[in-house]
Specification:
The complex is a heterodimer of chains A (about 220) and B (about 90). Chain A is an alpha+beta fold and about 220 residues long. In chain A, strands 1, 2, 3, 4 and 5 form a five-stranded antiparallel β-sheet that branches. Chain A has a four-stranded antiparallel β-sheet with strand order 7-8-6-9. Chain A is built from five helices and nine strands, in the order βββαββααβαββαβ. In chain A, strand 2 (about 30) and strand 3 form a beta hairpin. With about 90 residues, chain B is mainly α. Chain B is about 50% helix and about 0% strand. The longest helix of chain B is centred in the C-terminal third of the chain and has 25 residues, at about 55-80. Chain B starts with 17 loop residues before the first helix and ends in a 13-residue tail after the last helix. Classes of the chains: A alpha+beta (about 220), B mainly alpha (about 90). The interface between A and B is large, with 77 and 61 residues.
Chain lengths: ~220, ~90
Protein backbone atom coordinates (compact mmCIF):
# COMPACT_ATOMS: atom_id res chain seq x y z
CA UNK A 1 0.00 0.00 0.00
CA UNK A 2 1.18 3.50 -0.82
CA UNK A 3 0.24 6.62 1.15
CA UNK A 4 -0.05 9.74 -1.06
CA UNK A 5 1.10 13.25 -0.09
CA UNK A 6 0.94 15.55 -3.07
CA UNK A 7 0.86 15.85 -6.86
CA UNK A 8 3.68 17.46 -8.84
CA UNK A 9 4.50 18.33 -12.42
CA UNK A 10 7.00 16.08 -14.18
CA UNK A 11 10.33 17.87 -13.94
CA UNK A 12 9.61 19.37 -10.49
CA UNK A 13 12.35 18.41 -8.02
CA UNK A 14 11.81 15.09 -6.25
CA UNK A 15 11.88 14.50 -2.50
CA UNK A 16 15.22 15.24 -0.80
CA UNK A 17 17.16 12.08 0.07
CA UNK A 18 16.30 10.74 3.50
CA UNK A 19 12.90 12.47 3.70
CA UNK A 20 10.45 10.45 5.78
CA UNK A 21 6.69 10.81 6.16
CA UNK A 22 3.82 9.16 8.01
CA UNK A 23 5.06 6.58 10.48
CA UNK A 24 8.66 7.32 9.53
CA UNK A 25 8.29 5.67 6.12
CA UNK A 26 10.65 6.84 3.34
CA UNK A 27 9.14 9.21 0.74
CA UNK A 28 9.78 8.70 -2.96
CA UNK A 29 8.61 10.11 -6.26
CA UNK A 30 6.09 8.08 -8.26
CA UNK A 31 6.35 9.27 -11.82
CA UNK A 32 3.18 9.22 -13.95
CA UNK A 33 3.94 10.83 -17.31
CA UNK A 34 3.29 14.56 -17.13
CA UNK A 35 2.53 14.32 -13.42
CA UNK A 36 4.28 12.92 -10.38
CA UNK A 37 3.16 12.03 -6.90
CA UNK A 38 5.10 11.83 -3.67
CA UNK A 39 4.29 8.59 -1.85
CA UNK A 40 5.54 6.38 0.94
CA UNK A 41 4.79 2.80 1.98
CA UNK A 42 1.58 3.01 4.03
CA UNK A 43 2.00 2.30 7.73
CA UNK A 44 -1.01 0.87 9.57
CA UNK A 45 -2.59 2.86 12.38
CA UNK A 46 -5.02 5.64 13.31
CA UNK A 47 -4.53 9.22 12.06
CA UNK A 48 -2.93 10.69 15.17
CA UNK A 49 -1.97 14.37 15.38
CA UNK A 50 1.64 13.29 14.98
CA UNK A 51 0.86 11.57 11.68
CA UNK A 52 -1.02 14.59 10.38
CA UNK A 53 2.06 16.67 11.16
CA UNK A 54 4.27 14.15 9.38
CA UNK A 55 1.99 14.29 6.34
CA UNK A 56 2.08 18.10 6.17
CA UNK A 57 5.84 18.12 6.73
CA UNK A 58 6.26 16.17 3.49
CA UNK A 59 3.88 18.51 1.65
CA UNK A 60 5.85 21.45 3.08
CA UNK A 61 9.12 19.91 1.84
CA UNK A 62 7.60 19.72 -1.65
CA UNK A 63 6.36 23.33 -1.35
CA UNK A 64 9.94 24.58 -0.92
CA UNK A 65 10.90 23.82 -4.50
CA UNK A 66 7.61 24.10 -6.42
CA UNK A 67 3.96 24.49 -5.43
CA UNK A 68 2.33 21.02 -5.28
CA UNK A 69 -1.33 20.01 -5.09
CA UNK A 70 -1.63 18.72 -1.51
CA UNK A 71 -3.57 15.46 -1.23
CA UNK A 72 -6.02 15.07 1.65
CA UNK A 73 -4.76 12.76 4.36
CA UNK A 74 -5.99 9.21 4.15
CA UNK A 75 -5.64 8.16 0.52
CA UNK A 76 -3.76 4.96 -0.11
CA UNK A 77 -3.25 2.86 -3.25
CA UNK A 78 -2.70 -0.87 -3.52
CA UNK A 79 0.34 -0.38 -5.75
CA UNK A 80 2.08 1.96 -8.18
CA UNK A 81 0.08 0.77 -11.18
CA UNK A 82 -3.24 1.64 -9.51
CA UNK A 83 -1.87 5.01 -8.40
CA UNK A 84 -0.80 5.85 -11.96
CA UNK A 85 -4.19 4.76 -13.27
CA UNK A 86 -6.05 7.06 -10.86
CA UNK A 87 -3.79 9.98 -11.63
CA UNK A 88 -4.26 9.37 -15.35
CA UNK A 89 -8.05 9.48 -15.07
CA UNK A 90 -8.03 13.06 -13.76
CA UNK A 91 -4.78 14.36 -15.21
CA UNK A 92 -6.28 17.29 -17.15
CA UNK A 93 -7.89 18.71 -14.00
CA UNK A 94 -4.67 18.28 -12.04
CA UNK A 95 -2.65 19.99 -14.74
CA UNK A 96 -5.06 22.91 -14.76
CA UNK A 97 -4.98 23.15 -10.96
CA UNK A 98 -1.16 23.06 -10.95
CA UNK A 99 -1.11 25.89 -13.48
CA UNK A 100 -3.50 27.93 -11.31
CA UNK A 101 -1.38 27.61 -8.17
CA UNK A 102 2.08 27.72 -9.77
CA UNK A 103 4.43 30.11 -7.99
CA UNK A 104 1.98 30.77 -5.17
CA UNK A 105 1.53 29.75 -1.55
CA UNK A 106 -1.43 29.82 0.81
CA UNK A 107 -1.54 32.15 3.79
CA UNK A 108 -4.26 31.81 6.42
CA UNK A 109 -5.82 34.41 8.72
CA UNK A 110 -8.23 33.51 11.50
CA UNK A 111 -10.13 36.66 12.47
CA UNK A 112 -10.99 36.31 16.16
CA UNK A 113 -13.37 38.78 17.78
CA UNK A 114 -15.53 39.50 20.78
CA UNK A 115 -18.94 39.09 19.13
CA UNK A 116 -21.41 41.95 19.66
CA UNK A 117 -24.36 41.07 21.93
CA UNK A 118 -27.66 40.30 20.15
CA UNK A 119 -29.90 43.37 19.76
CA UNK A 120 -32.78 43.87 22.24
CA UNK A 121 -32.12 40.48 23.82
CA UNK A 122 -33.28 41.62 27.21
CA UNK A 123 -36.49 43.43 26.33
CA UNK A 124 -39.53 41.65 27.70
CA UNK A 125 -42.23 40.59 25.29
CA UNK A 126 -45.28 42.90 25.37
CA UNK A 127 -47.65 42.34 28.28
CA UNK A 128 -50.88 40.51 27.64
CA UNK A 129 -49.46 38.47 24.77
CA UNK A 130 -50.31 34.75 24.96
CA UNK A 131 -47.62 32.06 25.35
CA UNK A 132 -47.78 30.99 21.68
CA UNK A 133 -47.29 34.55 20.42
CA UNK A 134 -44.56 35.14 22.99
CA UNK A 135 -42.69 32.03 21.78
CA UNK A 136 -42.93 33.10 18.14
CA UNK A 137 -41.76 36.58 19.05
CA UNK A 138 -38.68 35.20 20.82
CA UNK A 139 -37.90 32.98 17.83
CA UNK A 140 -38.23 35.95 15.47
CA UNK A 141 -35.83 37.99 17.57
CA UNK A 142 -33.34 35.10 17.67
CA UNK A 143 -33.40 34.82 13.86
CA UNK A 144 -32.91 38.56 13.50
CA UNK A 145 -30.08 38.35 16.01
CA UNK A 146 -28.40 35.59 13.97
CA UNK A 147 -28.78 37.58 10.75
CA UNK A 148 -27.43 40.72 12.42
CA UNK A 149 -24.44 38.82 13.75
CA UNK A 150 -23.70 37.44 10.29
CA UNK A 151 -23.87 40.97 8.81
CA UNK A 152 -21.43 42.22 11.47
CA UNK A 153 -19.03 39.33 10.83
CA UNK A 154 -19.22 39.90 7.08
CA UNK A 155 -18.52 43.63 7.54
CA UNK A 156 -15.49 42.96 9.75
CA UNK A 157 -14.09 40.41 7.30
CA UNK A 158 -14.51 42.88 4.44
CA UNK A 159 -12.54 45.45 6.41
CA UNK A 160 -9.68 42.96 6.70
CA UNK A 161 -9.93 41.86 3.05
CA UNK A 162 -9.82 45.49 1.94
CA UNK A 163 -6.28 45.87 3.32
CA UNK A 164 -5.07 43.21 0.86
CA UNK A 165 -7.20 44.36 -2.08
CA UNK A 166 -4.39 45.87 -4.15
CA UNK A 167 -2.29 42.68 -4.08
CA UNK A 168 -2.72 40.12 -6.84
CA UNK A 169 -4.17 37.28 -4.77
CA UNK A 170 -7.16 34.93 -4.55
CA UNK A 171 -9.28 34.64 -1.41
CA UNK A 172 -11.44 31.97 0.19
CA UNK A 173 -13.47 32.96 3.24
CA UNK A 174 -15.69 31.28 5.82
CA UNK A 175 -18.02 33.34 8.01
CA UNK A 176 -18.67 32.43 11.68
CA UNK A 177 -17.00 28.98 11.62
CA UNK A 178 -16.89 28.71 15.43
CA UNK A 179 -17.46 30.72 18.64
CA UNK A 180 -15.11 33.67 19.04
CA UNK A 181 -14.21 33.79 15.35
CA UNK A 182 -15.77 36.22 12.87
CA UNK A 183 -14.32 34.24 9.97
CA UNK A 184 -11.28 32.67 8.35
CA UNK A 185 -9.50 33.87 5.23
CA UNK A 186 -7.23 31.87 2.97
CA UNK A 187 -5.10 33.87 0.53
CA UNK A 188 -3.24 32.48 -2.47
CA UNK A 189 -0.18 34.72 -2.69
CA UNK A 190 2.69 34.94 -5.19
CA UNK A 191 5.94 33.96 -3.48
CA UNK A 192 7.52 37.23 -4.52
CA UNK A 193 4.69 39.11 -2.75
CA UNK A 194 5.24 37.56 0.67
CA UNK A 195 7.12 40.60 1.97
CA UNK A 196 4.33 42.96 0.94
CA UNK A 197 1.76 40.52 2.31
CA UNK A 198 3.42 40.68 5.70
CA UNK A 199 3.32 44.49 5.61
CA UNK A 200 -0.39 44.35 4.85
CA UNK A 201 -0.91 42.01 7.78
CA UNK A 202 0.75 44.54 10.10
CA UNK A 203 -1.38 47.29 8.59
CA UNK A 204 -4.57 45.26 9.09
CA UNK A 205 -3.66 44.78 12.76
CA UNK A 206 -3.37 48.53 13.20
CA UNK A 207 -6.37 49.57 11.15
CA UNK A 208 -9.08 47.03 11.89
CA UNK A 209 -10.47 47.30 15.40
CA UNK A 210 -12.38 44.80 17.50
CA UNK A 211 -10.46 41.83 16.03
CA UNK A 212 -7.35 39.74 16.67
CA UNK A 213 -5.69 38.42 13.55
CA UNK A 214 -4.21 34.92 13.93
CA UNK A 215 -2.03 34.25 10.87
CA UNK A 216 -0.55 30.96 9.68
CA UNK A 217 1.45 29.79 6.69
CA UNK A 218 2.96 29.51 4.20
CA UNK A 219 0.94 26.41 3.36
CA UNK A 220 0.59 24.41 0.17
CA UNK A 221 -2.68 25.51 -1.51
CA UNK A 222 -5.02 23.21 0.47
CA UNK A 223 -7.93 25.66 0.19
CA UNK A 224 -7.55 26.32 -3.53
CA UNK A 225 -7.67 22.86 -5.08
CA UNK B 1 3.64 42.07 -12.43
CA UNK B 2 3.19 38.31 -12.65
CA UNK B 3 1.86 36.74 -15.82
CA UNK B 4 -1.78 35.74 -15.81
CA UNK B 5 -1.17 32.07 -15.25
CA UNK B 6 0.43 32.82 -11.92
CA UNK B 7 4.05 32.27 -12.92
CA UNK B 8 6.29 34.85 -11.27
CA UNK B 9 8.23 37.26 -13.50
CA UNK B 10 11.05 35.48 -15.32
CA UNK B 11 9.09 32.22 -15.28
CA UNK B 12 11.04 30.84 -12.33
CA UNK B 13 9.24 29.17 -9.47
CA UNK B 14 10.97 31.02 -6.67
CA UNK B 15 12.05 28.66 -3.94
CA UNK B 16 10.82 29.05 -0.42
CA UNK B 17 13.84 28.99 1.81
CA UNK B 18 14.04 28.46 5.53
CA UNK B 19 13.73 32.21 6.11
CA UNK B 20 10.41 32.38 4.27
CA UNK B 21 9.00 29.44 6.18
CA UNK B 22 10.41 30.67 9.46
CA UNK B 23 9.10 34.18 8.79
CA UNK B 24 5.72 33.16 10.00
CA UNK B 25 6.75 31.41 13.18
CA UNK B 26 7.28 34.76 14.82
CA UNK B 27 3.86 35.97 13.72
CA UNK B 28 1.96 32.81 14.62
CA UNK B 29 0.33 33.26 18.00
CA UNK B 30 1.44 29.85 19.11
CA UNK B 31 1.57 26.13 18.75
CA UNK B 32 -2.09 25.37 19.35
CA UNK B 33 -3.48 27.81 16.83
CA UNK B 34 -1.16 26.51 14.11
CA UNK B 35 -2.04 22.93 15.02
CA UNK B 36 -5.76 23.59 14.55
CA UNK B 37 -4.99 25.21 11.18
CA UNK B 38 -2.91 22.20 10.19
CA UNK B 39 -5.54 19.64 11.16
CA UNK B 40 -8.30 21.58 9.35
CA UNK B 41 -6.24 21.59 6.18
CA UNK B 42 -4.79 18.11 6.15
CA UNK B 43 -8.05 16.36 7.06
CA UNK B 44 -10.65 18.55 5.44
CA UNK B 45 -9.00 20.17 2.41
CA UNK B 46 -6.62 19.35 -0.42
CA UNK B 47 -7.24 17.10 -3.39
CA UNK B 48 -9.43 14.05 -2.84
CA UNK B 49 -8.18 11.28 -5.09
CA UNK B 50 -10.28 8.16 -5.33
CA UNK B 51 -7.84 5.77 -3.76
CA UNK B 52 -8.17 2.11 -2.98
CA UNK B 53 -8.49 2.77 0.72
CA UNK B 54 -9.63 5.87 2.58
CA UNK B 55 -9.81 6.86 6.23
CA UNK B 56 -11.85 4.49 8.31
CA UNK B 57 -14.82 5.90 10.23
CA UNK B 58 -13.24 4.78 13.48
CA UNK B 59 -10.09 6.69 12.55
CA UNK B 60 -12.03 9.91 11.93
CA UNK B 61 -13.92 9.62 15.21
CA UNK B 62 -10.66 9.44 17.10
CA UNK B 63 -9.33 12.55 15.45
CA UNK B 64 -12.49 14.60 16.09
CA UNK B 65 -12.18 13.86 19.79
CA UNK B 66 -8.73 15.37 19.65
CA UNK B 67 -10.04 18.34 17.66
CA UNK B 68 -12.59 19.23 20.34
CA UNK B 69 -9.87 19.30 22.95
CA UNK B 70 -7.76 21.50 20.72
CA UNK B 71 -10.56 24.02 20.10
CA UNK B 72 -10.83 24.55 23.84
CA UNK B 73 -7.12 25.18 23.94
CA UNK B 74 -7.37 27.76 21.15
CA UNK B 75 -9.92 29.75 23.22
CA UNK B 76 -7.51 29.70 26.13
CA UNK B 77 -4.62 30.68 23.89
CA UNK B 78 -6.60 33.63 22.53
CA UNK B 79 -7.29 34.96 26.02
CA UNK B 80 -3.58 34.87 26.72
CA UNK B 81 -2.80 36.73 23.49
CA UNK B 82 -5.53 39.35 23.85
CA UNK B 83 -7.08 39.78 27.32
CA UNK B 84 -9.97 41.82 25.82
CA UNK B 85 -11.37 38.61 24.38
CA UNK B 86 -13.39 36.70 26.99
CA UNK B 87 -13.64 32.94 26.93
CA UNK B 88 -16.79 30.87 27.17
CA UNK B 89 -20.00 30.78 25.13
CA UNK B 90 -21.30 33.83 23.31
CA UNK B 91 -25.00 34.25 22.46
CA UNK B 92 -26.02 33.83 18.86
CA UNK B 93 -22.87 32.01 17.64
CA UNK B 94 -22.11 28.51 16.42
Amino acid sequence: MLHAYCIRRAGDPGPPPGLTGVGGAPVRLLDAGELGMWVSPAVAGAPTVERLREHDAVVRAALRSATPLPVRYGTAFVDEARARERLGETREEYRAALARVAGRVEMGIRVAWEAPPPPAAGEPVEEGVGPGRAYLERRRRAREGDAALRREADAVLREVEEVFADLDLSTRRRVLPEPGVAGTLAHLVHRGDLGRYRERLDRARNEVFRVSLLPSGPWAPYSFV
Amino acid sequence: MAAENGTPPGGLDLRLDDDDLALWDELSPGEEHTLVELINRVLDKGVVIVGDVTLSVAGVDLVYLSLNALLTSVSTARRVIDPRIPGGERPGEG
